[in-house]
Amino acid sequence: MSIKPLTIEKRFDAPAAQVWQAITDNRKMKLWYFDIPAFKPEVGFEFQFYGGSEDKKYLHVCKVTEVIPGDVPAK
Known about the structure:
With 75 residues, the protein is of the alpha+beta class.
């Protein structure tokens, strides 16, 4: 059995800068889904997290393969 990566593409009705912050700023990411303290929006960065219900958890193994920041406000 071979394991193939799962790619998900989504469009959001929100400004690009707001979406960028939601998926790259650790403080904002943990508000909506998970907390990865060392997360970096850099190509090659790998991370893992568990998702699912209390009864059944699934390990998500992830790798950043592309970064296109677009119009991101300076911090």
